[in-house]
Write a structure and sequence with these properties.
The chain has helices at 3-9, 13-16, 20-24, 29-45, 49-66, 81-88, 92-105, 109-137, 189-195, and strands spanning 172-177, 179-182, 206-209, 224-229. By secondary structure, it is mostly helical. It folds into two domains: 3-135, no CATH class; 156-229, no CATH class. The strands form two sheets. A two-stranded antiparallel ribbon has the order 1-4. The protein has a two-stranded antiparallel sheet with strand order 2-3. The termini are far apart.
Length: 233
């Protein structure tokens, strides 16, 4: 098994958290080629989302940061136009397939650049698809994906928001909420790890906080605000 694939599936945190630079920084051109071929096959075969997404980001990083140094400075190459069109249309899996086929025939800096972009976008698309799948799985959310007509919308305006004096506008509903802060990670890792079949990474400490600008605001307040008012048709 390739070294990077072994890192992805490792149970030992010391191995699983190995930095990509320590493996690829001084790797030879042939070693890098071997790793990307193994990662491409690996990410298509695995069903675990965490493993697939990590493989995609490894592929992105190798093509973006490590392979270019091994290509000739002036190298004429061809990037498949159909793959470029797929990239523009956000059909990243199809773009990857075309770019990989061209890369297998003649590796080049331009194709690595195209693959880096496609892999990077595909990784985030995979995460987004998983979020949508998770939302659909909750029974209370399924109505959002089944509406064919405005009458199917299950939410209704409260009668108090539909009452007004003849010379006034309808009442305004204000919603204000604090923002979530993750004290134990650098981002929303609990959401991502829960959605990526790696719940151990979701052991975090979150708090809700109000915010203010130092030197400008007298006090903190909820930073997220939304307003709703019925308007005349």
């Amino acid at each position: 098994m390739s070294q990077l694939c072994a890192i992805i599936i490792a149970d030992d945190p010391l191995l699983r958290d190995t930095a990509l630079e320590s493996v690829c920084g001084n790797a030879s051109y042939q070693t890098l080629l071997s790793e990307i071929h193994a990662l491409e096959e690996f990410r298509q075969q695995r069903t675990n989302l965490y493993e697939r997404v990590r493989a995609l980001f490894f592929l992105y990083a190798i093509h973006r940061f490590y392979l270019p140094a091994h290509y000739p400075a002036a190298q004429a190459t061809h990037v498949p136009y159909d793959g470029y069109v797929h990239l523009l249309n956000r059909r990243f899996e199809e773009a990857v397939a075309l770019f990989v086929a061209a890369f297998m025939r003649a590796p080049s800096d331009a194709l690595s650049s195209a693959l880096a972009t496609a892999y990077h976008q595909l990784a985030f698309q995979t995460l987004a698809d998983q979020v949508r799948q998770s939302v659909r799985a909750v029974r209370g959310n399924q109505w959002m994906f089944r509406m064919g007509h405005p009458a199917d919308y299950p939410l209704r305006i409260h009668p108090r928001l539909l009452t007004r004096d003849a010379d006034q506008a309808f009442p305004i509903l204000q919603e204000a909420t604090p923002v979530r802060m993750d004290l134990s990670h650098s981002g929303w890792s609990d959401i991502f790890f829960l959605g990526m079949d790696f719940p151990a990474g979701a052991q975090v400490l979150n708090i809700s906080v109000d915010l203010c600008v130092r030197g400008r605001d007298a006090t903190t307040r909820p930073p997220v605000e939304a307003y709703l008012r019925v308007i005349d048709e």
